[in-house]
Request: fold
Amino acid sequence: MAAPDELFCWEGDWGLPSVNTDCLVVLAYAQFAGAPLKLHKISNPWRSPSGSLPALRTNQKETISRPSDIIIHLRKQKYNADYDLSAKEGADSLAFISLMEEKLMPALIYAFWVEPKNYVEVTRRWYAEHMPFPLNFFLPGRMQSRQLEKLRLLRGDESLEAGDELEKELYREAVECMNLLSQRLGSHKFFFGDSPSSLDAYVFGHLAPILKSKLPNGKLQQHLKSLDNLNNFCTNILLLYFPRDGRETTNQKPSTQSEGADFDNVPNKRKKQFLSALVALGAMLSYALLTGMVSIQHVHQEALEEPPDLQDLESHHHEDEGDD
Amino acid sequence: MFVLVIHILNVLHCCVFVCLFLTVTAAEPWPENATLYQPLKEDQILLSDCASSLAVQAYLRMCGLPVQVVCRVNAEYMSPSGKIPFIHVGNQVVSELGPIVQFTKAKGHSLSEALDDVQRAEMKAYMELVNNMLLTAELYIQWCDDATATEISRPRYSSPYSWPLSSILAYQKQWEVRRKMNAIGWGGKTLEQVYEDVSQCCQALSQRLGTQPYFFNKHPTELDALVFGHLFTILTTRLTSAELAERIKSYSNLLSFCRRIEQTYFEDKRLIQSSCSL
Reply:
């Protein structure tokens, strides 16, 4: 068989396989469908083939970024978690995925990227700590402005700012969405029957970050914790499909993931060493050039060439004076 | 310059108008003089706005609440959320179907009362499906397909204004919609992919409807109003290409569903047929 497709995802934390909703959706779907992907968990979006995460590089070297397109691609490769769904269940999946995109996604963006305290204390800190050296200074800020822009366009309000009124409205919609999901799930283990489908992947991807992150303003988390069935649903998926990440991340991630991690860490280290050496060398050289070398060379050359001229001039002057 | 000033005055005027009426009061009975505002039917309104407006009209008719439709050039700027349509009832102004449903519910009119929790969850989910896929596809075709934008959307959108304001407003709108498409990941889609999404959405709706008269059996809900608004508008609107309507026509149960609602709720008024022809 051909080489497996490669999946690039954000690193995990807080007991999650990845911190990003889209990455979680793709990871969960791949696990549900049993797709053999070569996983690269990275914390540098510039190392992804598409420049954003998640990204799937197929064995034909195509790159796919949108989670829904990745799922369609996997489905075409016969890794289909929705195979047992009836047409009506497929329609329901589509509807509930839309519901989350319209109602839950804006609140997620708000909670992680716009709410000032959450952003400064958790989101920005996490990304700044995990990104490699020069990127960590400007990428988190740029990601934030992009997310804010997205929220503004979604709401159709150009001057949208963080504030109580906006928070209340977004969270009200999100809470309603979570309640609807909870009602739809009922006491089942998964949304459709005994095995998980793409809808379960989407629900997991959207709810797990709310459940597991430790945001200072955790109103969404509080509400989610009160919905026992959704709570168990997320914990169950973490236990069953991501047993390694489910345990807190104190112990190193073994096997396939650590391969990816090692593979990524070493060049990162080298790059860092190389960069710092380069910066140091540059500083030294410029210092040397500015203070010593240039002026010495100039003085040296002038010292060799000018004195005769001066003497000549002086002698000419003397001659002139003499003539006078 | 003069035109610009007039326009700004217009917007300001309407903001004041809206703010005055936004004060929330306790539930009062539905008045006779409720009005629904939308852009000019004949030569201004666009497919997506027409669909949203028709959905609200269908919903109010299903509730048995009378409303008078008024066309205004600056309806978009009069609306509190900047979206079409909005209704003016008593001393309150509410825009878009979702809030209008909430509003009528507060007045004691609801179509989804009889549903159980799971059904209500499904109804809300399917409504978001329509908003997320059909409405977005309509916006995409209107503003991101160059042929449609040049021939239909920009001229119609800017028809009430004289040059240069007309061009400024039309391009500003187009620019805004395109940025939104990029933000939600639709920017890279081709027209064919968008049609494919519409098909997928209709397939889902068709599956859900099955052979029932309405989505939740005997009685219509706000979901029926929303689906009817969008499908009927797409079917009766002439665009540069008939592809969008063709995609819907392959689902016969959706077609008869549209016909059923039209006959049941719009029989008295023939004007709907001609109302939204672009």
